[in-house]
Each structure stands twice: as structure tokens, then as C-alpha cells.
Design goal:
With about 550 residues, the chain is α+β, with helices and mostly antiparallel strands. Helix content is about 50%, strand content about 10%. It has 22 helices and 10 strands. The strands form 4 sheets. The protein has a 4-stranded antiparallel β-sheet with strand order 7-8-9-10, with helices on one face. A two-stranded antiparallel ribbon has the order 1-2. Strands 3-4 form a two-stranded antiparallel ribbon. Strand 8 and strand 9 form a beta hairpin. Helix 11 packs across helix 15. The longest helix is centred in the middle third of the chain and has 40 residues. It is globular and about 70 Å long.
């Protein structure tokens, strides 16, 4: 086959996979090779037949990118369905947890290892990872999924078609997203924040002291001696190349003792801008976009999904039998993890993936972001052992920086829960399987900023506590992004050179789809998991320890 023939075939398969309604046009597309023909097919077979308002169709026609249009017309409904029919604790069942192992007898502990597919990925010079090719409860990573993913990312099939078209109208943006099901409570999760427009100086500042930006503020190791205040968020990304339509990233944000922004330094233009000066609103937008892009790629995607969640899920599956107390401890917290991490990798990591398409970076720059994210990773460091500069610690002690104060309280509750569980597990908590699991996790941290220490009982407690902390509270603060993506005037992944005041239409759409992917509801932590704990031969003490953990969480929530 020539490249055009392969491209035509995969285009057909791609369209067939998502919508049988466009079968005839898909067959026509299989005979075509140029991208303009693909655009025409998408317009004729998808956009024209879409059950959306004319205003929405006209808005979509402004961007000449078939993959963006196709994705936004075919995927939100599946996210909406998952929100309306959420997974619950009843879906976690003892008898269904068996990936990587086979039963050898009728006893609860009668298991032997079994083959499970593993998928190796090299992302950057220092960052490689392995993701399991099957999920305990959601089946195998299929050939069709692999084919679809490759098709979506193949530049010969669907090239990167950048756009800088702007909406410049929040009311239109709201109607546009609502018509596409990209609204809160449908394909997007419902926010639990109020009065968080991110436009005023107060709301902007709150992003860094009471929102996801708090994780960036904790990286300031020394109190600033600047005249603009003791707090800084420094994001020097100006040396990373961007594609021709988009401006460079990079900002340093200054805050005073009252947690208010006082100045922003634009690294690319080498200019310090203060409130009220020309360019102040644009400087805040630059800071929001730089921070949001950095945290999504580093803290959310790499640290939480590809390191903490993926390593814990993989190593517990490969090294721990389904009846092992440590695997049972982690099962609730790694539920659906492999499926989610496979999808996260396919849609957010490769060249021309959704994250690359929605951001302004060239792909070599994206790889540098991933590489630095991996080498700077400290996600397994016990949260309560981390050190902060005196002024930030003072805020935490005064209850003015909940990421540290409430985060530390939650971590200690988790650590008590883990200790209680391992105490009940007895010798199994430190048997050969347990130590193999720990060593597997430790080996996975080599090359990162924080490398797990040599095995010890306390080290195991800290590892498990850090995993649970990362995939619950930490993931929530850096993964609940609906507030940041609901309007193009708030935040997103890039700014155009022609109009750097807000997010362009194409990036706004793709960012909305990424935000919708976070709406897939997991079983609530404050649930009994009555089909799992203490069932199928598992010990009754699981029920009591889980109940005690929930009681402590309820007390903290008040």
C-alpha cells in the first residue's frame, strides 16, 4: 500500500467506528487521499447531519480542522452518558479482580501468575513507561482502539491544522458549549466553586492560593526579597518553541502578604507589568495559560496518571495475587486506572494528540516538558514530610493555605488507615509478594527527583499512603478543571500571537473535550463497597477498617 491508500483505509475505519450514519460517505472517503477531501467528508457526513443549532454549525465551520470538528461532534455524548450512568461501589466485586493471575483451587489464596499484556512507551530521552494492556474490570486494549489512536495521530491522515479564530464573546461560547453537551452536569463535571471568574485580580490570585495553582506556589523554596511581596510562582518556559501562530509561554507572578497579585513578569518580552498598566489583563491571561498548561502536563498527566496511578496499578497487578491484602487495599483506589491511563496516554501524549493540538508547543518542546516533568517528579514523597518556605508555612498554620494544612490532615488520616490495614494483614504485609511490589515501585522511581528508599515497614506505609493521596485529593485539585475551561476568557492551553487576550476557538473546543474526559465518574470514596470488602472469602476486618477510615474522613469534612 502507498501512504494515500493506508490513509484512506484508516479514515474509513475511524469514521465507521464512531458513527454508522456516515457509512456511505466513509466509503467515498476511502477512495480519497487529500486532507481537504477529509474535511469535506466531515462537513457533509457529520457536521451537516449533526443535531445542533445553525449558530453552532457556523461557529464550527470557522475552523478548518476535521479532527477538531469530528471529535466535538462525536465524543461528548459518551461522556454525558457516563455522567448520567456513573460507576458505583457496587461495580467493584471481589470475584472480578483477577488480572494477571489464575485460580489453582477453591481457596481464597489459591492463585498462580498468568500472562498479562504490557505496552512499552518511550516518551522522551529520560522518560519511558509501561502500561498494562488490559484492565481488571474493563477488558483488553483492543486492536481497534490501537488503530483508532494511530489514525487520530497520523499526520499523513489528519495533519495538524492550526487555527487562531477567536470567539470574543462569552455568551456565544456558553451557548456553543451547551449545544454540544459540553456544559456542567452533562459532559462536563459540576463545579463546587463559586464566584471564580478568574478575571478580577482577587479571583486570579485565589487560583494560586485556593485552587490548582497552589501546587506551584509550594515550589517556592525561599521567601522572595522582591518589593512586590514574599510569594512568587515562577514558570520560565520561554525557551520552549511554539508553532508559528502562537506566542511563547513563560511568566513569573508576584503576590503580597495579603495573597494579592502585585506584578507579572513576561519572560518572552522581558517586561514586568503591574496592575493598572497597559497589558495587565494580557499578562494575567499569560500567567493563567502558562500555569494551566504546565500543571496539566506535569502534575496531572505525568505525575498522577503515568507515574503514581500507573506504577501502583501495574506493580500490584503483576506482583500481588488478587487475595493479597496490599492488592485488596489498592483495588478501590486503582479501579478503572489502567483503562483511564491507556486513554490518557493515547489522547494526551503522542505527536498530534489532543493535548499537542490544543497547546501551542512544537512536539519537540512537548517532549521537553514531559522529560522535565518526569525527572522532577516527587509524587511518592510523603506529603507531610515536605518542607515549605517560612512565609508559606505561616499561611498554612493560620489556615490560609488549605493545600498544605488540609492536605496534611488528610494524608495523616490515610496513613493511619494504611497502618491499620497492614497491621491486620500480619505477615502478608511484608512477605515476598509485598517486597516484590515495593521493589517494583522503587525501580520505577529511578531517574526521578524523589527515589523511594530501601524497603522497610514504614517505607511501605508511606508508599501506599502517597499513592492513595495522589489519586484522590491531589488528583482532585489538579484534575477538576471545569472552572478553567468553561469559557475562553478563563484559561486554556495556548495564546495566539494575533490576539493573546483569550483562548482561540479551536483550542477552546479541544480543551473542553479534555475537561470532559475528567468527568467520567469513579465510585465515591464515601461508599461501603459491600461487594468487595469482606466478601468472597476476604476477612471481615476489611469492613471495620474501611468504616473507621470513612468516619475519620467525615470528621475532617466538617
Amino acid at each position: 500500500f502507498t501512504i494515500p491508500c493506508i490513509g484512506s483505509l484508516l479514515r474509513t475505519l475511524l469514521i465507521l467506528h464512531y458513527s454508522c450514519k456516515i457509512l456511505i460517505m466513509a466509503c467515498i472517503a476511502s477512495c480519497l487521499s487529500c486532507n481537504c477531501c477529509v474535511d469535506a467528508v466531515v462537513d457533509a457526513a457529520v457536521l451537516d447531519k449533526a443535531d445542533i443549532k445553525d449558530e453552532t454549525k457556523k461557529t464550527l465551520q470557522r475552523i478548518k480542522d476535521s479532527i477538531t470538528v469530528f471529535a466535538v461532534l462525536t465524543t461528548p455524548e459518551s461522556f454525558y452518558e457516563s455522567v448520567q450512568n456513573p460507576l458505583t461501589d457496587a461495580d467493584v466485586k471481589t470475584e472480578e479482580i483477577d488480572l494477571g493471575w489464575k485460580k489453582t483451587g477453591a481457596g481464597f489464596d489459591d492463585w498462580k501468575t498468568d500472562h498479562v499484556k504490557q505496552i512499552d512507551h518511550t516518551i522522551s530521552p529520560n522518560f519511558s513507561t509501561t502500561i498494562l494492556g488490559a484492565d481488571d474490570l474493563f477488558g483488553d486494549y483492543t486492536c481497534m482502539e490501537k488503530l483508532i489512536g494511530k489514525a487520530l495521530r497520523n499526520r499523513c491522515i489528519l495533519p495538524l491544522e492550526d487555527s487562531a479564530e477567536m470567539l470574543k464573546d462569552d455568551e456565544l461560547a456558553e451557548r456553543f458549549f451547551n449545544d454540544l453537551l459540553l456544559e456542567e452536569g452533562k459532559a462536563l463535571p459540576v463545579t463546587y466553586n463559586t464566584d471564580f471568574n478568574m478575571k478580577t485580580d482577587e479571583s486570579f490570585s485565589r487560583l494560586f492560593f485556593y485552587g490548582m495553582g497552589a501546587v506551584l506556589l509550594t515550589k517556592q523554596t525561599e521567601v522572595s526579597g522582591s518589593e512586590y511581596g514574599p510569594f512568587e510562582v515562577d514558570m520560565p518556559l520561554q525557551n520552549l518553541e511554539t508553532r508559528k501562530l502562537y506566542r511563547k509561554y513563560g511568566a513569573r507572578v508576584h503576590f503580597n502578604e495579603d495573597q494579592m497579585v502585585t506584578a507579572i513578569y513576561d519572560y518572552h518580552f522581558k517586561k514586568l507589568i503591574k496592575p493598572g498598566e497597559t497589558g495587565w489583563e494580557e499578562a494575567k491571561t499569560l500567567a493563567k495559560v502558562t500555569s494551566f498548561t504546565l500543571m496539566t502536563a506535569r502534575e496531572h498527566l505525568v505525575w498522577t496518571h503515568l507515574v503514581a496511578s500507573n506504577v501502583a496499578t501495574r506493580e500490584s497487578t503483576l506482583k500481588l495475587s488478587p487475595s493479597h491484602p496490599i492488592r485488596r487495599l489498592l483495588t478501590v483506589f486503582t479501579f478503572h486506572a489502567t483503562e483511564v491511563n491507556l486513554q490518557a496516554f493515547d489522547t494526551l501524549v503522542p505527536n498530534t494528540s489532543l493535548l499537542h493540538r490544543s497547546a501551542g508547543f512544537t512536539y519537540p518542546s512537548m517532549q521537553k516538558v514531559f522529560d522535565k516533568s518526569y525527572t522532577s517528579c516527587d509524587i511518592f514523597e510523603p506529603f507531610v514530610d515536605r518542607k515549605y518556605n517560612p512565609e508559606l508555612q505561616k499561611l498554612a498554620d493560620e489556615g490560609k493555605f488549605p493545600f498544605i494544612s488540609q492536605g496534611s490532615e488528610y494524608y495523616e488520616i490515610v496513613r493511619t488507615f494504611v497502618r491499620d490495614w497492614l497491621d491486620k494483614a500480619g505477615d502478608a504485609a511484608s512477605d515476598a509478594q509485598a517486597k516484590a511490589f515495593y521493589q517494583g515501585c522503587k525501580s520505577a522511581t529511578v531517574g526521578q527527583k524523589y527515589v523511594l528508599p530501601k524497603y522497610s515497614a514504614e517505607g511501605m506505609v508511606n508508599l501506599l499512603s502517597s499513592v492513595i493521596f495522589a489519586v484522590t485529593a491531589y488528583h482532585e485539585i489538579i484534575g477538576h478543571i471545569v472552572d478553567y475551561t468553561i469559557l475562553p476568557s478563563r484559561s486554556g492551553f495556548r495564546l495566539s500571537k494575533s490576539d493573546p487576550t483569550e483562548i482561540d476557538l479551536q483550542s477552546f473546543i479541544i480543551t473542553g473535550l479534555i475537561a470532559a474526559s475528567t468527568s467520567v465518574t469513579m465510585p465515591k470514596l464515601m461508599s461501603a463497597f459491600s461487594n468487595f470488602f469482606g466478601t468472597g472469602g476476604a476477612p471481615d476486618w476489611e469492613i471495620d477498617i474501611w468504616a473507621s477510615f470513612q468516619q475519620k474522613l467525615e470528621v475532617q469534612s466538617k
